[in-house]
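Listing S7. Sequence submitted for prediction.
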Amino acid sequence: MRLVRAWCVSSASALYASRARPRLSRTMATWVDADEASTVQANVQAVRERVGKISETATLIAVSKLKPLSHVKAAFDAGQRDFGENYVQELAEKAEAAKDVDGLRWHFIGSLQSNKVRQLCQVPQLACVHTVERAKIANSLDRVWGELGNAEPLACFLQVNTSGEESKGGCAPDQAPELAKAIHAKPHLKLVGLMCIGKYSGAEGDASPDFNVLRACRDAAAAELGVPVDSLALSMGMSHDFEQALGLGATHVRVGSTIFGARPKK
């Protein structure tokens, strides 16, 4: 792998030793210095150790939204391979800039509108969509993924609004089995499991009820599909509660600020 082409930098040393900026879009314009890279690498290693103490098989997704591509490279160099993005345009730009990096896997974890489906499906190294919340989105993803001639189905999580908050996406818990069946039937989609966003902070309450609701939805979906419960994954838990989520059976956790630091305003 040639670093210049893969990461759009002028030299290997430029990433850590220079303030020179690569020719990237505004989304990825902020550069990183050696201290910032070292901090990101130490953080990702610490989080991976915390995850490993609870689950040896869980997937850590480093959420890099609104962070420069150089932060992604710093985490990648520390062994991280799975990265999550919330905005289709930002993901598309980052993925295009790093399309030649072997082993890099992108997860889309933000709200998805129908008019963004084609752009998302064209993202290089797109590994999974975690936010399929209604049949219309599933239909669009299935159609476009097939039209693009992909040999393997697109991995998807069904998103459930476990707390019933209007500010959060996802189908109602009682609709999860029906939606799971609809996704499962799509020839170009692979239902990996179910996803939720728990309470953000202690001020909002304990997130464990949300995680337990998602587990119950997973069990109901498995029964509807006639598949083993453990064949469906659980994407739940973020920076403030991923250890709690792992303790309740999470197979995928989405950790951002604990790795990359506080995010700038969009």
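Caption to Listing S7: primary sequence and predicted structure tokens for the chain studied. The first helix runs from residue 3 to 7. Residues 3-260 form a domain with the TIM Barrel fold (CATH 3.20.20.10).
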